[in-house]
Amino acid sequence: MAEEVGVSRQSVHGWLRRYADEGLVGLQDRSHRPDGCAHQASPEVEALVCELRRHHPKWGSRRIAFELGRHGCPEPVPSRMTVYRILIRHGLMTPAKRRRGRKDYVRWERDRPMELWQMDIVGGIFLADGSEAKVVTGVDDHSRYCVIASVVRRATGRAVCLAFAEALREFGVPEEVLTDNGKQFTARFGNGGEVMFDRICRENGIVHRLTQPATPTTTGKVERFHQSLRRELLDDVPVWPDIDTAQAAITVFRHEYNTDRPHQSLDMAFPASRFRPAEPGVVPVKLPASVTTPVEPPAWSELVIAP
């Protein structure tokens, strides 16, 4: 009989069961829509998602899902994709274009903190006097902990070394430092001499590693810090009144970045939970005299630093 009417035997048996249970009413067409949806959040959770997004417009779906679980969601925590769909449905997020993955991009990470720092310089601090200040930045490779975020009026070699020296005082001496080929860091493409930054590294036993030209992904962790800094702070302040105000705001951002911001690359852990400074003890750090004091000193002075 199924073949005669062009349907499957399962359909015929289903009709017979429905006729036996409900009569002719049971043979009416029915919706195939499922009774429920496994990934559909309740109205209460949906409202929480929207509220978090409105209070924190820079948070994405992954961060919102993390915060729901962190602070006790009243129901099972929705997945990142469920949060994403909620935000799209309520017009709180623009659908992102799908990006093709780069097969040649290799992720790497040092095994422990203080093994390698990545350093760089970023602009975007526009001041009321019409000038643009820079930020000297440094990130621990293993933990993503920001060890340097120093605003400078001009990113000279001395300004960069002063920021570097301050980080050495606070955290101790890393084994290696990775930078690009900027003239503040190296004379690789200059006269072949030794710049102040290279000299500090050599005198303190720090291996200074340089990226290949035009390879910004090599210092991807510090570049990722720059991206967050721009998107979450600098883009919202077109003009800063002065350097001190900018430095105070960036210091607050740096603290939040280190201690209260989950990182996807760390399985949503905080950098501060993975970072450990150098072992306690007195560490002698040799610095050029121009970095330690403006007074007439010998060519080199030794600064003893206690972490």
Characterization of this structure:
The protein is an alpha/beta fold. The chain folds into three domains: 1-26, no CATH class; 43-89; 116-305, 2-Layer Sandwich (Nucleotidyltransferase, domain 5), CATH 3.30.420. Helix content is 36%, strand content 15%. The protein contains eleven helices and seven strands. It has helices spanning 2-5, 9-22, 43-55, 61-70, 80-89, 157-171, 196-203, 220-232, 243-259, 271-274, 289-292; strands spanning 116-126, 132-140, 146-152, 176-179, 207-210, 283-288, 300-305. The strands form two sheets. Strands 3-2-1-4-5 form a five-stranded mixed sheet, sandwiched between helices.
Strand and helix layout:
Elements: H1 2-5, H2 9-22, H3 43-55, H4 61-70, H5 80-89, E1 116-126, E2 132-140, E3 146-152, H6 157-171, E4 176-179, H7 196-203, E5 207-210, H8 220-232, H9 243-259, H10 271-274, E6 283-288, H11 289-292, E7 300-305
Parallel strand pairs: 1-4, 4-5
Antiparallel strand pairs: 1-2, 2-3, 6-7
Helix pairs in contact: 4-5
CATH homology superfamily name of the largest domain = Ribonuclease H-like superfamily/Ribonuclease H
Shape: elongated
The number of distinct structural domains comes to 3
Please identify the top-level CATH class of the largest domain.
Alpha Beta
Classify the fold: give the CATH topology of the largest domain. Nucleotidyltransferase, domain 5
Largest β sheet strand count, sense and barrel closure: 5 strands, mixed
Low-pLDDT stretches = 293-307
What gap, in angstroms, lies between the N and C termini?
87 Å
Order of adjacent strands in the largest pleated sheet:
3-2-1-4-5
Number of helices: 11
The structural class is alpha/beta
Mean pLDDT: 81
Helix content: 25-40%
Order of helices and strands: HHHHHEEEHEHEHHHEHE
Radius of gyration: 29 Å
Strand content: 15-25%
Task: Please tally the β strands and state the result.
Answer: 7
Q: From the 3D coordinates, which CATH architecture of the largest domain would you assign?
A: 2-Layer Sandwich
